[in-house]
Every structure is written in C-alpha cells, then in structure tokens.
C-alpha cells in the first residue's frame, strides 16, 4: 500500500519492484485519474489499462441525467407555451396525459431511477408508457 496518489511518489515505490516482474503485469484496472494512468504507463509498460466499470457507469448515468433534465425543461417550456395559448384562446388547458396519469414533464421527473432499472423489473405500466415515451422523446 502506498499512501496518496502523487505520481512521483508512487512511481518511486513501484520502481523498487524489479523490471522483469513489472513487465509481467498484463492488465491494470484503475479509475479515470490522469495521475494513475501516468503511474501505470510508467511502472507497468506492457500492461493494458482498463477503466473500472463503476467510473464508466457514473459517466453514463450523469450523461443520461443531463439529457433527462434538459428534456424535462423543454417539456415544461412547451407546456407553458400551450398553457398561454389556451389562455389567449379562452380555453381550459389540458396537458397530454399518458395511461399512467403522468404528463410528459411528470414522467421525465419520475423516470430518474427507471432509466437505470433493468427492463425485466419494470411493471407492465412502465413498459407500456416508457415504450411510447421512447418513441416521442428520443425519436425512435
């Protein structure tokens, strides 16, 4: 164990391992820190670098969250425009409602965890509504 992630410090400690042993290392799993990549490339030159799946999943989760939030703001904006138009026309505004009782903005608000839930664990209602929503929101 080496305390810290200072590239130079870690490389110095690892350099105490004989070259022939360090050259036998085939694969190293690491996070996405540039310092760790530097350490591994220098200390284990023949190793393949593999980014651990948890960091990749986090990036994917964050990207989907960003998209979901953006789509929700767009849905809110669209609903506000439709509300204003209804008001100008003197009609009562009734948003489009899916079979589960949610409007698009509500569905996008509630879908945060559903997006990362295995489809095999979805309820029949979720399968039906989200399947329709995929076509509308993501253009499939």
- Give the tally of β-strands: 2
Return residue spans where pLDDT drops below 50 for at least 5 consecutive residues: 134-140
Largest sheet properties? 2 strands, parallel
Q: Order the strands across the largest sheet as they lie in space.
A: 1-2
Q: Report the oligomer.
A: single chain
Structural commentary:
- This protein has helices spanning 7-14, 19-22, 34-43, 53-89, 104-110, 124-137, and strands at residues 27-30, 48-51.
- The protein has 140 residues and is mostly helical.
- It has 2 domains: 7-51, no CATH class; 54-137, no CATH class.
- Helix 3 (34-43) links the parallel strand 1 and strand 2 (48-51).
- The radius of gyration is 25 Å and the shape is elongated.
- It starts with 6 loop residues before the first helix and ends with a helix.
Helix and strand topology:
Layout: H1 7-14, H2 19-22, E1 27-30, H3 34-43, E2 48-51, H4 53-89, H5 104-110, H6 124-137
Helix pairs in contact: 1-3, 4-5
Quick take:
With 140 residues, the chain is mainly alpha-helical. The chain is 57% helix and 6% strand.
Structural key phrases:
140 residues; mainly alpha; 2 domains; 6 helices
